[in-house]
Amino acid sequence: xxDLKFALIDAKRKAFTERSMTLAEAITKAxxxxxxxxxxxxxxxxxxxxIERFSxxxxxxxxxxxxxxxxxxxxxxxxxxxVGPIRTLDGAxxxxxxxxxxxxxxxxGYLRKTIIARLGAExxxxxxxxxQQYLLTDAEIAERDERIEPTLEDDEESKRSEG
Length: 163
Fold this sequence. Notes:
The protein is mainly alpha-helical. The protein contains 5 helices and 2 strands, in the order H-H-H-E-E-H-H.
């Protein structure tokens, strides 16, 4: 039963990934053909929204739970790039870089260690959060399955008590 459960989870994950990639390709193709990202995303069933302009060198916080994921993915992208799908705990994100301006080279060199440390900390935090959610999801599935499906021991025990 355990193998079947993990096979089902893996099949769902693969199907989701394939569907996300197909949608990302369709949206990218539409954007490359001149269609606005919002229109292409809406047509494919994605909800689109805009995150306020930000700088990789500032400490300002962006009020969006996916911002750390998005920032990590677009850090080396250019204006007009469609990025993703970026996997989240509850789905996937596509990002579109509407504008990219170069920072002053001196500020980039000066802040290099800070940027690397911050991105490393964000990646570690996201990885830990994702891992914890994965463990919780597996525990919830196992707990639900234990309640729904009696084990072989339960079947044998009930037969002994009946007979």
